């Protein structure tokens, strides 16, 4: 990991290099700031706000009754799935991991929110190894390497342009979504 033998890293140190944004988001009982700082409890308020700005969720937070001090729970009303997703992106941005795993991070949101999440994810993925698991191909068209899987086996690989030129499974899926 970054030139270090992982055998020489503690489990906690190795895990701190990974950040995940999953399809199913979760919030816990606590303030917005505490939810964002979950992976970095010693974060300053300024760091939390900066992460929220990068995740494009700061404006929404500031419209809440007590802003960053608003109490949340996983079943909090008035927060959309997309807003929860942006809060979890801010959480990962604050931790600044070397490796990022995005698992269907935009699958439950509307198109407008997907665009906002996409912008936040572009910032998040910059200068780090990212694994993006997606059925919506709009999420991955800019990837350096796309692996197309079927029944657990990689059947195609390449970037978006290369895969379209192959006119195989990826091209079929892409054309079914955008043609």
Your description of this structure?
Strand 6 (146-150) and strand 7 form a beta hairpin. This protein starts with 10 loop residues before the first helix and ends with a helix. It contains eight helices and seven strands. It has a three-stranded parallel beta sheet with strand order 1-4-5, with helices on one face. Strands 2-3 form a two-stranded antiparallel sheet. The chain is of the alpha/beta class and 179 residues long. It has helices at 11-15, 32-36, 45-54, 58-62, 81-95, 111-125, 160-166, 169-178, and strands spanning 18-22, 30-31, 71-72, 99-103, 129-133, 146-150, 153-158. Helices cover 40% and strands 17% of the residues. The longest helix is centred in the middle third of the chain and has 15 residues, at 81-95. It folds into two domains: 10-139, P-loop containing nucleotide triphosphate hydrolases (Rossmann fold, 3-Layer(aba) Sandwich), CATH 3.40.50; 146-179, no CATH class.
């Amino acid at each position: 990991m970054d030139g270090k033998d992982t055998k020489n890293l503690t489990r906690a140190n190795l895990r701190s290099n990974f950040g995940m944004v999953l399809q199913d988001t979760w919030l816990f009982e606590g303030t917005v700031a505490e939810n964002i700082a979950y992976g970095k409890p010693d974060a300053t308020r300024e760091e939390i706000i900066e992460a929220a700005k990068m995740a494009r969720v700061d404006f929404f937070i500031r419209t809440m009754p007590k802003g960053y001090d608003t109490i949340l729970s996983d079943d909090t009303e008035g927060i959309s799935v997309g807003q929860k997703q942006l809060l979890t992106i801010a959480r990962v941005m604050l931790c600044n991991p070397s490796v990022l795993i995005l698992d269907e991070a935009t699958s439950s949101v509307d198109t407008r929110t997907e665009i906002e999440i996409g912008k936040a994810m572009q910032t998040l993925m910059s200068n780090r190894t990212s694994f993006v698991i997606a059925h919506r191909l709009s999420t991955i068209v800019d990837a350096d390497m796309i692996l197309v899987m079927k029944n657990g086996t990689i059947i195609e690989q390449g970037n978006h342009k290369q895969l379209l030129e192959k006119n195989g499974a990826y091209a079929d899926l892409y054309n079914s979504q955008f043609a």
